Amino acid sequence: xxxxxxxxxxxxxxxxxxxxxxxxxxxxxxxxxxxxxxxxxxxxxxxxxxxxxxxxxxxxxxxxxxxxxxxxxxxxxxxxxxxxxxxxxxxxxxxxxxxxxxxxxxxxxxxxxxxxxxxxxxxxxxxxxxxxxxxxxxxxxxxxxxxxxxxxxxxxxxxxxxxxxxxxxxxxxxxxxxxxxxxxxxxxxxxxxxxxxxxxxxxxxxxxxxxxxxxxxxxxxxxxxxxxxxxxxxxxxxxxxxxxxxxxxxxxxxxxxxxxxxxxxxxxxxxxxxxxxxxxxxxxxxxxxxxxxxxxxxxxxxxxxxxxxxxxxxxxxxxxxxxxxxxxxxxxxxxxxxxxxxxxxxxxxxxxxxxxxxxxxxxxxxxxxxxxxxxxxxxxxxxxxxxxxxxxxxxxxxxxxxxxxxxxxxxxxxxxxxxxxxxxxxxxxxxxxxxxxxxxxxxxxxxxxxxxxxxxxxxxxxxxxxxxxxxxxxxxxxxxxxxxxxxxxxxxxxxxxxxxxxxxxxxxxxxxxxxxxxxxxxxxxxxxxxxxxxxxxxxxxxxxxxxxxxxxxxxxxxxxxxxxxxxxxxxxxxxxxxxxxxxxxxxxxxxxxxxxxxxxxxxxxxxxxxxxxxxxxxxxxxxxxxxxxxxxxxxxxxxxxxxxxxxxxxxxxxxxxxxxxxxxxxxxxxxxxxxxxxxxxxxxxxxxxxxxxxxxxxxxxxxxxxxxxxxxxxxxxxxxxxxxxxxxxxxxxxxxxxxxxxxxxxxxxxxxxxxxxxxxxxxxxxxxxxxxxxxxxxxxxxxxxxxxxxxxxxxxxxxxxxxxxxxxxxxxxxxxxxxxxxxxxxxxxxxxxxxxxxxxxxxxxxxxxxxxxxx
DNA sequence: GTAGGGTTAG
Length: 855
What we know:
Elements: H1 12-21, H2 38-50, H3 54-66, H4 73-86, H5 89-101, H6 108-120, H7 124-134, H8 140-152, H9 156-168, H10 175-184, H11 191-202, H12 206-209, H13 211-225, H14 228-237, H15 243-255, H16 259-271, H17 278-291, H18 294-307, H19 313-326, H20 333-341, H21 347-359, H22 364-376, H23 384-397, H24 400-412, H25 419-431, H26 435-444, H27 450-459, H28 462-473, H29 483-496, H30 499-512, H31 518-530, H32 534-543, H33 549-561, H34 565-577, H35 584-597, H36 600-614, H37 620-632, H38 636-644, H39 652-664, H40 668-681, H41 686-698, H42 702-714, E1 723-728, E2 731-736, H43 745-761, H44 777-784, H45 788-799, E3 806-810, H46 816-829, E4 833-836, E5 841-845, E6 848-849
Parallel strand pairs: 3-4
Antiparallel strand pairs: 1-2, 1-3, 4-5, 5-6
Helix pairs in contact: 2-3, 2-4, 3-4, 4-5, 4-6, 6-7, 6-8, 7-8, 8-9, 8-10, 9-10, 10-11, 10-13, 11-13, 13-14, 13-15, 14-15, 15-16, 15-17, 16-17, 17-18, 17-19, 18-19, 19-20, 19-21, 21-22, 21-23, 22-23, 23-24, 23-25, 24-25, 25-26, 25-27, 26-27, 27-28, 27-29, 28-29, 29-30, 29-31, 31-32, ...
The structure holds one DNA strand.
């Protein structure tokens, strides 16, 4: 692990002081003291201040005082202006203290400058202090400066209140006041007040004459109301536009999900004769990132090279980000090149490249290494965004020790209470199943926003998540809900197959207006599919408009998992006809449809089509699907040859697939080899040992079974306990093998006993070879009837009525005897039984299963 | 002396 240490932060103002103090003060007549006049010194001072040499200007000021040529207020004013322009708070403070020492009477102009200085440098308290001490000296500029001070320092409420106070005081607000106050109203909390101020503004005529007021209105409609149409109307009506207003429209379109329009606006701007600057290119490049359009991005890249703007840090950052987001193959090469070519780096550029590595996945170590370089070589202090990305990297790496170390550094630098750092910390913990720590991090947050809630909801189990949603999120109108909240809730319900809960969330969605959201529709499709109600999923799919590749992939995966290979493949053809490009996940779904239905020829056909038609190179998952297709159909030797012919070394997943095929076809020899390969690659994976021991057990080789069990014990590997669950009236009931904890256990076992007698009459014979212990036949039968899926089935039968299907869920693969027994039960009782196991769905009806006993 | 545009967490 890299050991991390933070460099001592160096403030930019200290650097500047050191550099200038070693310089000689350029002063033409310095040896001839008789030529020093008040006017010449003042000219000197103004010149230094104008070109930004504040240190020299202050020296000149000192010189004036020493020569008894007392500087007047305009001299100080010039200096303050220079400090405001360069945001130099230290020098500004120095000048302020010199002003106080000078005993001059401060006038309105100087005091207004001081307000502006402190406001722009973030010291709003000092600005406030000066404003309230002004009394009679206050003029409309003081009011404007204070209104915008509050607005730009995030005190929207105070800014709006001050605007109305000013009106009450009898001052007429000017364009500066209007734009600052409307800006303060731009967040949704105060957007209605913004409209009131807008009405007031229309009476004044500033709307027609001032570009900044127009810009503020664009923000009011976009940020306050999500209303791009009205913002566009304001923009179109603006009599005067400049490159800032164009850039703002481009930025807002890009940020609010219309990157295509943003790019169009950019070209319109150029055609209309406005010159794009670094901000414009930066925004337009962000729109390209959003669009994922590499060609337009590259076109802009060559443009910024021609104009020389590529050396700008903002533009450089956007280029790095664009190449990271547009890399269709997840490669960071181009992004890294753009980063390495930048002449100067700042926090933002380091953070952008680190974030790129984290978001493209699989490059987390590079991200951590860059962080180390940022601290040592770059001598740059990380900010809250840097920490947010780094914590995400640690979450992906499952390296909580490093994560906690990095979090410690954010604490030292004072970022730990910043929302996005805390939120990242929560999701780092939820991703690593550390719910207790996630909750702690959540409680620690000073201000919890929707992202915080969503991060936690995502990690909680479905019940808890739903509780949090009902009790806190929905009741607290300040938090609001968004698509992420619903997506997390839906995936929570889907993971345990709680269709009742899923339906409740669906009902809430219809009320909330999110049901037309593409991500939500997609989440609904998978929720219904994963809960066993594929037809409901298909209805959602049919009723939505604007389906994307994820919508199609979700429904195809659904049909494939349910064993409806024909419908899955038909939908795949429809997808191709409608012009949607499949991705690698779509092909996993298509190939798994083939494997679940034993369609060997189709499987080969699609495997070859992937690259030929869509330039998608098969990944490990696709090879695993092909091994599955061959292995399940009994062509174990061909599957083995196929593995040996792969262009890269097969991983544990591929061998695990072969091993389960060996179990179905009782091939102990090949199974042994597969298990060895898995254990070689993943020595701590209990599933390999379990599968191998099952293989020996079904071949009756009990000695070997015992040997494996011993091996597992030595490594202290624990087999995942098999369990099944069923949702009855929105409550999930979970059962383990031989479970008697359920309040209705007696009733359940009575039903099970009666059931066995009934189906034995119809020809059911318990398949005792599925019992994995070496015991007497009769005992084996007893063990068999304690399987969790049978208990869940019996409970389902006594608690629901026909024609409601009984939906059972199991964390492992369903046992062969249980599967057979359920077929008999479906025939004897007329009930439809749907089972979701770790691999697929079984629809069992009238003694038949949709898997054709092939799973 | 007073105003506007770029990176971000789920």
